[in-house]
Amino acid sequence: MAASGNPCGACKFLRRKCTDDCIFAPHFCSQDSSACFAAIHKVFGASNVSKLLQNMPFADRSEAVVTVAYEAQARLRDPVYGCVAQIFALQQQVAILQGQVMQAKALLARSMVTQQTFGQPYHGFADHPSILGYTDTTQQT
Amino acid sequence: MAASGNPCGACKFLRRKCTDDCIFAPHFCSQDSSACFAAIHKVFGASNVSKLLQNMPFADRSEAVVTVAYEAQARLRDPVYGCVAQIFALQQQVAILQGQVMQAKALLARSMVTQQTFGQPYHGFADHPSILGYTDTTQQT
Known about the structure:
- 2 copies of one chain form a homodimer.
- By secondary structure, the first copy, chain A, is mainly alpha-helical.
- Chain A has 2 domains: about 1-75, no CATH class; about 80-115.
- The first copy, chain A, is built from 6 helices and no strands.
- The longest helix of chain A has about 35 residues, at about 85-115.
- The first copy, chain A, is elongated, with a radius of gyration of 27 Å.
- Chains A, B: One of its GO terms (biological process) is positive regulation of DNA-templated transcription.
- Chains A, B: This is LOB domain-containing protein.
- Chains A, B: It holds the Pfam family LOB.
- Chains A, B: InterPro entries: LOB.
């Protein structure tokens, strides 16, 4: 039962009595939680989510409800790929960025060689060893 | 019904008769598909996945089964975060890589200024305008 004495969003959606030990009540107490629960129920089923929550410590349940709701809403928006579409997109973005970092490393290394060839002491990379993947040993005494 | 005449992996798991129009059969015909379907059934429920597949064109169903199986297996491995854990990890990786690219851009820009100050013609960036986000105009005639 929600703190207000009204049924929680899940029980309101399921049109059932909300008891004091309702597993959904602590996580579906806001006004718009019925709509969120509707998505969860449509994709996962109330019974499956209830079992999932029962099998984890209370402290983890809020996070689990958030991630289950996220997956459910993604699946309703994109029935074929759900939130896996976001995983694909992020993996692609990581690959592009890794390519840019590699390209930048090569350019920086080339630039460092050019400057050393022309006898200019270069101190820029010592502050950013993570970019080149190693520490600029020219700074060591 | 699977092409072999045996029940499909889904019907085998559900211990039901596999009919010619079984919605799962085209996607659960391999030997190990029963274990995959068990994960899907535990997380989403066979009925919910059946409805999901019925509401999309046949051509999309194989991809949908793959992504639903992916989400189900991730949720069994990590009941609290499921595959959302991977989204968080990838978002973090993107943020780190974006930081590295920004840092590299700043270093490359500084390096370009240094080399121009010392009167060295620098041709390196012209081949890689994407790194600096602009074309090296010093190459224009």
